[in-house]
Specification:
The chain crosses the membrane at residues 20-38, 58-80, 100-120, 132-153, 160-180, 186-205, 217-234, 279-300, 306-327, 339-361, 373-396. This protein is mainly α and 418 residues long. It is built from 17 helices and two strands. The protein has one domain: Na+/H+ antiporter like domain (Na+/H+ antiporter like fold), CATH 1.20.1530.10. The longest helix is centred in the last third of the chain and has 35 residues, at 369-403.
């Protein structure tokens, strides 16, 4: 009996490395959050996610929600950045003609939603400041939905979404830093960049890597404190701290050297992915998705709420799909031949899931409680509609690919490289 139980427990990490399992856990956390926040116990939910934790002396006295969105989610972003690095070095994104397409699509998918919001609010200066709300895609939710409904879709679609969402998030962070942040600490940002250079040197410098590998002290004794310090400085700078995770992921070495059986990139991803899927994402969803349905009835009569909904739904579709199509017609950029434009359309609608960053920008945009409630409700409504529409399209496309003999979408597009 104990042997069987032990064997079952050893299978848990392998199960959590499957994106489908992580997707279900994240979606489950989001559903619990929505039900809890809108139930008679909603007050306890709000008390929990606003409960402060951390040392005040280091300016890290953050709410539980902030620790989940800024701290824990940095682990997920590290894995995404690491996976993209594998794609750029070994995978589909080695081809510049394919790599440039999701980057341009992301930029178009930010500009068009912002323009749509401005069009809806051009005559209302008091709500115009919310133009940044529909720009952002929530990468965690989008990847989770894709994993659940698109098991037989070509891996290139997941790579397209990851690249697009990372560029989208970087753009949204720049927008927040420039237009929605009162104070940006250049000293802290410079310190974070300097330590990222050290992190990169330890990865890329063959001498440094060899010394660490031969050292009797485990590598994590060096890398974990360094990573935490980079995160702390990035957070102190005023830039969204998850960017530290992306940057470190992109700096990982993806090619083995010496007697290494696997590169650090693959070893760390193998270690962290179960923690990301089983702990990080469910807690993030539980603490971030609990939007109260207040103001839903009147959101369609308010230009702020309506601008957010149309921006996230129509703006993302027109921006990403239209921008991609025009780019392939006017430049040498190309769509991966395993994909069709209907796949990109489904993914473009999926990118209309706003949630975390959109809600953050809404908080920074409005002081009026009524307008803020309408904007948040707009994000929630658009995200739910985007999820349903994209799920319908991508489920049909997944069934199409399955009928034509395509294999199941892998957990990680770079997991078997190197």
């Amino acid at each position: 009996m104990s042997t069987t139980r032990g064997s079952g427990l050893r299978r848990v990490p392998d199960l959590l490395r499957e994106d489908v399992i992580g997707g279900f856990l994240l979606i489950g956390g989001a559903i619990i959050a929505l039900v809890w926040a809108n139930s008679p116990l909603g007050g306890s939910y709000e008390e929990l996610r606003t409960f402060p934790l951390g040392p005040e002396s280091l300016h890290l006295r953050l709410s539980v929600q902030d620790w989940a969105a800024d701290g824990l989610l940095a682990v997920f972003f590290f894995i995404v950045g690491n996976e993209l690095k594998q794609e750029f070095v070994h995978g589909d994104l080695r081809n510049p003609r394919r790599a440039v397409l999701p980057i341009i699509a992301a930029l178009c998918g930010m500009v068009v939603p912002a323009l749509i919001y401005v069009a809806f609010n051009a005559t209302r200066p008091e709500t115009l400041h919310g133009w940044g709300i529909p720009m952002a895609t929530d990468i965690a939710f989008a990847v989770a939905i894709l994993a659940v409904v698109g098991r037989y879709l070509p891996p290139a679609l997941r790579t397209f979404l990851l690249t697009l969402a990372i560029v989208d998030d970087l753009g949204a962070i720049i927008v927040i830093a420039v237009f929605y942040t009162d104070h940006l600490s250049m000293a802290a940002l410079a310190g974070a960049i300097a330590l990222l250079a050290v992190f990169g040197y330890l990865q890329r410098g063959r001498g440094a890597a060899a010394v660490l590998d031969r050292s009797p002290v485990p590598n994590w004794v060096v890398y974990v404190p360094l990573a935490v310090l980079i995160w702390v400085l990035m957070h102190a700078s005023g830039v969204h701290a998850t960017i530290a995770g992306v940057a470190m992921g992109m700096l990982m070495r993806t090619t083995p050297i010496g007697r290494e059986a696997k590169s650090p990139s693959h070893r760390v991803e193998h270690l962290l992915r179960p923690w990301s899927a089983g702990v990080v994402l469910p807690i993030f969803a539980l603490m971030s998705a609990g939007v109260v349905f207040a103001g839903v009835g009147s959101v369609f009569t308010d230009s702020a709420g309506l601008g957010v909904i149309v921006g996230l739904l129509a703006g993302k579709l027109v921006g990403i799909l239209g921008g991609s199509w025009v780019t392939t017609r006017l430049t040498s950029a190309e769509l991966n031949p395993s994909l069709s434009w209907i796949d990109v359309a489904g993914m473009s609608i999926l990118a209309g899931i706003g949630f975390t960053v959109s809600l953050l920008i809404a908080e920074l945009s409005f002081d009026d409680p009524g307008t803020l409630a309408h904007a948040k409700a707009g994000v929630l409504i658009a995200s739910l509609i985007a999820t349903v529409l994209a799920a319908c399209i991508l489920t049909v496309r997944s069934a199409h690919y399955r009928r034509h003999g395509y294999s199941e979408l892998p957990t990680s597009s770079g997991g078997d490289l190197g």
